[in-house]
Each structure stands twice: as C-alpha cells, then as structure tokens.
Amino acid sequence: MTQQQYKNEQGEKCYQAKGRRCVHCGKPATQLGHIIPQDKVSLKKYGYRIIHHWRNRDPVCGLTCNAKSSIRNHPIEIAAKVREIKNESAIWEAE
C-alpha cells in the first residue's frame, strides 16, 4: 500500500468513525485536521502511519476549527495519542 493509499483509507475510516460533521462546531466537515500536526518534524519523529492514522484526524469545517484540533504544543497529550494509536494497531509488528 502506498502512503497516499494509506492516507486515503485512514481518512475514510475517520469519516466513518467520527461522522461527516465538524467535531468542534457541528457544521458539515470539509476537511480532516490532524491532531498531532502533519509537519516535517512530526512526520520524521512519528512516521506517516501515526500522522495519517484515523485516530489522529478530526473532521473539521475550516481552518479555525482545524486549529482547535491541534495538540502541537502539548507533549504529554501527543505521547498519549501515539500510545493510543500504537495500542489499537498491529501495523508496527511488521516493521
């Protein structure tokens, strides 16, 4: 599976699990925001499987609500989110 296929599959799982409405205001979701940010540092540190996992994404209506999803400056919350994803997934056993 390519990285893009994984990202798309996880995006659809996110919509199925969390619905197609913004998790912050309830408006129709137009995008998926990352809880642990999708930036070069996070991608290098955690890998694309963590960053694009459905549990690390929230349906949001726009940039304002997208910013509300981010835990960029909260290392304890980031560590807990990474543990949650790793505990839920067996994908790291193959790596």
Structural write-up:
This protein has a two-stranded antiparallel sheet with strand order 1-2. The model has no long low-confidence stretch (mean pLDDT 93). The chain is 51% helix and 8% strand. With 95 residues, the protein is mostly helical. The protein has one domain. The protein is globular and about 30 Å long.
Using the alpha-carbon principal axes, give the shape.
globular
The total number of structural domains is 1
Number of separate helices: 5
The gyration radius over C-alpha positions equals 13 Å
Offer a quick outline of the entry.
51% of the residues lie in helices and 8% in strands. By secondary structure, the protein is mainly α.
Comma- or semicolon-separated keywords:
mainly alpha, about 50% helix, two-stranded antiparallel sheet, about 100 residues, 5 helices, about 10% strand
Helix/strand layout:
Elements: H1 3-18, E1 31-34, H2 40-46, H3 48-51, E2 57-60, H4 63-69, H5 75-88
Antiparallel strand pairs: 1-2
